[in-house]
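Inverse folding, one chain.
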C-alpha cells in the first residue's frame, strides 16, 4: 500500500446484488482522505448522491465506513 492510500481513511462499502446500480458498482471500495470528502458524496455517511435508484425514489444501500489504522 502506498503513502497516498495509507492517508485515505474512509472507504465505500456497497451492497452488491442484482439491484445495485452501475454508479454504485463503479464507486465500490473508493477511498476518501477525510470525512468531509466522503460525506460530500454520501451525505450523513450513507446513500450515494449519484445512485440511479435514488432518482426513482429507492434508497441507496451504500455507505462510507472508517478504515482501521494499518
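Residues assigned per position:
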Amino acid at each position: 500500500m502506498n503513502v497516498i492510500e495509507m492517508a485515505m481513511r474512509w472507504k465505500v462499502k456497497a451492497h452488491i446484488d442484482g439491484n445495485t446500480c452501475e454508479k454504485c458498482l463503479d464507486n465500490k471500495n473508493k477511498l476518501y482522505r477525510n470525512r468531509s470528502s466522503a460525506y460530500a458524496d454520501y451525505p450523513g455517511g450513507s446513500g450515494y448522491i449519484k445512485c440511479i435508484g435514488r432518482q426513482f425514489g429507492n434508497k441507496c444501500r451504500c455507505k462510507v465506513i472508517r478504515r482501521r489504522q494499518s
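The beta strands are 10-13, 31-32, 63-66. The chain has a mean pLDDT of 88.
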